[in-house]
Amino acid sequence: MIWNEYKAEIQEINLSTITTQNIKLCILREDLNHPEISGNKFRKLKYNLIEAKELGFKKILTFGGAFSNHIAATAAAGKLHGFETVGIIRGEELENKIDENSTLRFAKKCGMKFHFISREEYRQKDQPDFLEKLQKQFPDTYIIPEGGTNNLAIKGCKEILYDNCFNFDYIATAIGTGGTIAGVIESSQPHQTILGFPSLKGDFIVNDIRNLTEKENFTIFNQFHFGGYGKVNEELITFVNDFKRINQIQLDPIYTGKMVFGIMELIKNNYFEENSTILMIHTGGLQGIEGMNKLLKKKNKTLIE
Ligand SMILES: *Cc1c(COP(=O)(O)O)cnc(C)c1O
């Protein structure tokens, strides 16, 4: 019912505050594809949940950290599609803080059951013997990896682009595990270059992407992660707030904020040839803002507006 085809609206971004070489910058509003399973997580879950249903599973199990968009999306999708959901959550200390954490609170309301594990144990999340142990502990569950990335997720992400997207020279997206960009690369056209902005530190991601797609029309920018996953600073928060004031579009500080910041820097530095057209994918993630603001407030920092 909710897995209908969705073609996100393309909106033009105001570039009047910077000098450009006649660049046209647009954003694809994937964040509006569903109110609760928003953004790329909707795309990544679609074929996984269809598969789980076809195979007769009643329960979905997956992994995530304290503010995980994937945990929130899985909990909501499970509720809508009649699956029980189990979240394996990184950090035992969170067990007593479910109601203080907006992501976990939301997931709990959707019916998700939690299983909290230490950071050390969490590191084994992709290892076969650990998964086997989980499968025994939670029998008859369909297991989706952290961030939701697997072949069925990539199949879903291929559906992000549609005819109006193929006129652009460049398509930009934020990167976590690389599943989303792999799907976008797969469905892109040969004349297009896909630009990826990892929100994590480290060069491993290029190899990860190469393992997920054979096409090579992509470029990764490793200088806009702001210190690593979940790390933000005053400059980034101010950027996200200014962007919203100018364009009436909310970005998240973990993924899309860093990607759009990166694109603006590249435009200012004349990375793009004259008259280039760029489409940025708004992959959603707005549910995480409440949790981030709580952290920022504790540290007496500027909040996301
Ligand atoms: C999860 C997420 C990403 C990263 O997607 P991957 O497929 O893991 O690379 C990007 N943007 C947002 C908003 C996300 O929630």
Automatic annotation (TrEMBL):
Domain Tryptophan synthase beta chain-like PALP: residue ranges: 22-284
GO molecular function: D-cysteine desulfhydrase activity
N6-(pyridoxal phosphate)lysine modifications at: K41
InterPro entries in the record: ACCD_DCysDesulf, TrpB-like_PALP, TrpB-like_PALP_sf
Keywords on record: Pyridoxal phosphate
Active site per database record: S68
Cofactor(s) the record lists: pyridoxal 5'-phosphate
Residue ranges crossing the lipid bilayer per the database entry: none
Keyword Zinc (UniProt): no
Family, per entry: Belongs to the ACC deaminase/D-cysteine desulfhydrase family.
Full protein name: 1-aminocyclopropane-1-carboxylate deaminase
Species annotation: Chishuiella changwenlii
